[in-house]
Amino acid sequence: MEERRKDKRILTDAVKIYRIEDNEETRIDTLISVDLSLAGLQIIVENKLPEDTRLNILLAVLPDKTPIAVSGKVVWVKDTEIKNQYNVGVEFVDFSDDVKKRIVEDYIRAS
Question: Which positions ≥6 away from 107 have C-beta within 8 Å?
C-alpha cells in the first residue's frame, strides 16, 4: 500500500489530551503510543470521540523541553479489532509557525 502521509511521524506516549465540551476540559486517556506528525496525531482510546470534537493537546515528549500546547479536532474515527478501542485521527488547528517549528525541532528531528 502506498504511503499517503506527507509528514514524518514518530511514536510517543508522552501526550496529554483533553476534550473540550461546553468550555470544560475532560482528560482523555490514550491506550497506546501516539503517532505524531506536524499535521496532527493518531491516538487509540476506549471511548469513541465524535468527529469535529475539539481537543486541547499537551505534547511533553522530551523531559528536558517545555511541553507544547496545541489545539486539535477529531477528523476521523475507526473501530479497532479490539472491543471498545478506537483509532482516532486528530488534526492540529490554529497553531503558530513558532509551534510548528518547535514540534519539528523538539520532536520530529529528535526521533
Answer: 10, 12, 36, 59, 61, 62
